[in-house]
Amino acid sequence: MIWIDTILQGILLGGLYALFALGLSLVFGIMRLVNLAHGDLIVFAAYLILVLVTLLGLGPFLAAAIAAPIMFALGFALQRLVLNRVLGTDILPPLLVTFGLSVLLQNALQEGFSADSRRIPAGWLETASVPLGPISLGVMPLMTFASAILVTLALQWLFYRTSLGRAFRATSDDPVTASLMGVKPASVFAKATGIAMIVVTIAALYLGTRANFDPTTGPARLIYAFEAVIIGGLGSLWGTLAGGIIIGVAQTVGAQINPEWQILAGHIAFLVVLLIRPRGLFPRAFD
Amino acid sequence: MALLETKGLTAFYGDFQALFGVDVSLSEGETVAVIGANGAGKTTLMRSISGVIAQAPGMVRFEGREIGATAADDIMAAGIAMVPEGRKLFPSLSVEENLLMGCHRRKVNGPWTLQSVYELFPILKERRDRPGTALSGGQQQMVSIGRALMSNPRVLLCDEISLGLAPVVIKDIYAAFPQIRATGASIVVVEQDIGQAMKVADRVYCMMEGRVTLSGAPADLSREEIHDAYFGTAA
Fold first, then answer.
1. pTM of the entire structure?
2. Which domains does chain A have, with CATH numbers?
3. Residue B23 Cα, gap to closest chain A Cα (Å)
4. Confidence band of A5 (pLDDT split at 50, 70, 90)
5. Is B93 on the interface with A (CB under 8 A)?
6. Which domains does chain B have, with CATH numbers?
7. pLDDT mean over A239-252
């Protein structure tokens, strides 16, 4: 029974990792841009929610709903003013720029909020749980997982059922030909990053309410997100969700065997998948 | 007044000059063919007009407006649609989605809709849900032409649509041209296949090494003249 509990907890934890990863997956899938500041942007969004909660006395969910359009605008501007300038055939400039952004964000957050770890208060939800036979599942982990599925569904719908999604895929395939169809790649990319920042805000909400965070929390989230994206297969949204779950389950199973093994077990699962399926579990047919 | 014209158009790839003062024009409802051997500058001419290669403002005029320095997506929105060399379908998109990309930005009511494109190329309707790139070369070319038509363009630019296709397939594709012309579209076809170009065009430009070497109505041009302009055998 303990193993069923462990695996269930792992799946729910995987929802959180999937939320970390979906924004990264979206941006990478569309513009082949690896955003090394992704984890720091999640932490930044968590501070933004925290500020709204403490300053305005809002509930965390309402605060996140207000933070989301702010983050969209920041993402749009970041892509438009900075990242579009470095996108090209060479993948090094965007890596350097986002690495710089990561350093900048961490230091700015330390300057503004000190290195103390913080938490977004979520009231009674923090400890609420639902009994499920002999085991009980936390309400927050359940909501995290449900959010991960909803975000995946929403992004899937956006990608495959809307004209913006069609433009995303077309631009990702061939930006020059897309511009011959009247698409402005620079603005399509900016919208994509804006949408990724909405996902980042949702991830930040659960990161901040479920655990402590401080300005240096970002890079570790980036690693989990990366691993989830790569396990799932680059650019596949459902694959990213599956990747998050695999890391989550590996971590809780590892922790069950020996608490010191939690993080390591996740990384080992990642390496094993890479060994067996170097292109991930659900790679796109072409790349 | 010409619907579309270039005046003294030059183009460079880095230090390499690909076009040297090219003057071409297209009138409303006219079909013009640009012929020439590989490297004559035909595709560069198409890329300059469609905005893929940015030019000085004065070099290209469309409906009297200077569009030389306009971005490709805005030129498309103004009504110049391109069937690019090599078809350039989007591999992630189905046949129907590829067609819909054609009217992603420019949504103009006109003769061309999904339905009328499917009537022009019925095979595409059968394959509408398949990935665009899973089709044969000729069918892909039909998608590429249909995609450009979806915006109901004022000018249709067709770059090397017979390249790499079997003669029987080329014939099938050119069989659609009378129907496209009948809707009033003005068309520029770039061709290496001189015979095909002569059949569809009201006027022909022959290019060699980045310059227009000959122009006129097909009936007025002799075989020898074309041969000389195409291969540069004239002194």
1. 0.91
2. 2-114+139-276 (1.10.3470)
3. 23
4. very high
5. yes
6. 4-231 (3.40.50.300)
7. 96
